[in-house]
Inverse folding.
């Protein structure tokens, strides 16, 4: 089944404790993105990647890091989480071959709470 | 400033009626606009894309219109069913950035039997 998976789905942590949210897709997509979704603000792009070893900042990159060492994986790293990073996070992928449509395939989401 | 707006109030309709959701934008010149469905606790799912040179696009019970003069897209679900209850997001291509999508905050649709 074609899908984007994220782990963990739920995470409660404390300020300053480094964490990683994993994202993996099995569709051989070139493009991957991370979004956060907050009430009243909609989905906002954090980082995106055009291919292996190619990443760039989105609209709200502060406090986050990403890496793309393999085509299928795109982990999101919070080196020192703060309470304002409490949010619902989505990983998404899309195909270069379908760039004209830019259809995003989203993962199930990770609900992060930083105390 | 640039904005993309969807009605934040939930839309309640009865089964069998047509639901119409609105997406308005300001200070964007999108080449296309997308609609996604999002169920509670799940990621958005792509439904339809309409390009700037298309007035209308249909897919089964869904119809989307795109008026670049009014800077508005309308999303219609005909013969609505309780299973159509969800939040619907619109997204358009932002002016800057690779594959830059800008999302609205979504409108929740509730279809009662």
């Amino acid at each position: 089944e074609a899908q984007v998976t994220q782990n963990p789905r739920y995470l409660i942590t404390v300020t300053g404790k480094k964490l990683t949210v994993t994202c993996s897709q099995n569709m051989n997509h070139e493009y991957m993105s991370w979004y956060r979704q907050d009430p009243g603000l909609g989905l906002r792009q954090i980082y995106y990647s055009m291919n292996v070893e190619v990443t760039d900042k989105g609209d709200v990159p502060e406090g986050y890091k990403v890496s793309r060492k393999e085509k299928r994986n795109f982990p999101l790293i919070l080196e020192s989480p703060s309470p304002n990073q409490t949010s619902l996070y989505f990983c998404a992928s899309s195909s270069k071959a379908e760039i004209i449509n830019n259809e995003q395939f989203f993962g199930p989401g990770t609900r992060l709470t930083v105390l | 400033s640039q904005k993309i707006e969807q009605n934040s109030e939930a839309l309640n309709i009865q089964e069998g009626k047509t639901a119409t959701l609105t997406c308005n934008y300001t200070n964007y010149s999108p080449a296309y606009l997308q609609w996604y469905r999002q169920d509670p606790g799940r990621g958005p799912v792509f439904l339809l894309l309409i390009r700037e040179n298309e007035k209308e696009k249909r897919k089964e019970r869904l119809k989307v219109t795109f008026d670049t003069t009014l800077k508005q897209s309308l999303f219609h679900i005909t013969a609505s069913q309780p299973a159509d209850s969800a939040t619907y997001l619109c997204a358009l291509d932002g002016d800057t950035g690779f594959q830059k999508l800008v999302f609205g905050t979504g409108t929740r649709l509730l279809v009662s039997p």
